[in-house]
Amino acid sequence: MLTGHDEPWRAWHDAMGSARMHHAWILAGMKGVGKGAFARAAAAQLVAEPGLAQPPWEVHPDIIVLDHLPANDAEEEKRADGKPWQKKRNITIDQVRRMQARLVTRPTLGARRAVIIDPADDMEKGAVNALLKSLEEPPAGTFFLLVAHRPGRLLPTIRSRCRVLRFAPLDARQVDRILQSEAPQADAATRAAAIAAAEGSPGAALAFVEQDLGVLHTLMRRLTEEGDDHLGLRGAMADAIGARPDRERQQAAIDLARAVVAAELSKGAPPRQARVIAAHGELTKLAGQAATYNFDPGLLVMEIGGLLASLAMPRETA
């Protein structure tokens, strides 16, 4: 997803052309906006040597990517077989230490090496402390790109050693172009609903299509408008999410609910707006917990549904 983000690219290219490029960067912005794709493309540019053919970033010896590993050996086998697989909750200290062991050698194909941590705000505490040592004394020619959905979760000592690149949400036309390219099976109505729900995040829009969230989106909007005194809509939501949703589907449902709530902010009188802000804050907290907690699907639906329904009662007039 390399559509848009002209300003981050301009800042990155200006830095590459300067005499002293900063050794550590935080790529900050909402989840799914394209920061990870930017990091990998930027790293490929960074390590490239004129006149020397370069392998793809996935197998490049001078590009190290730390992201979520499979949860266990069984999930590793699923990944190897091309099947859906569950990820570990965090990026671990062992991953950081293995990366640091590679930094004692010189880059393989040129003078530079890139380390991508995606997302850096999912590192466990020991991993953060271990990384800090590398940021304080970076090996020559090594550059760090920390993808962060919630940069405020990073330690101040990490943030103070990094230059920040901020990624704004994409506009509707840019998101639509990505959907047409990456999800050609989606019709115009589905794309329109995905764009409205995604709030400028192409990743969220693709999840909307791939997770088939259209029915869930309709139910969530009804909850904000009608309430749910008899729990019928929450029951329908439970059916739409499924009895055993994986963590990615749970995360997609929470992100969708956040988008639905955010769209309600401009509606109603100040007392209702206060409830909208409170509901959005609770959903944001849920989104942060989803990566580490094993939610009971039924309780998760009740929590999300209750927050959405709270916006419909009572409904004040302006």
Automatic annotation (TrEMBL):
It comes from the Bacteria. It holds the Pfam family DNA_pol3_delta2. This is DNA polymerase III subunit delta. It comes from Novosphingobium aquiterrae.
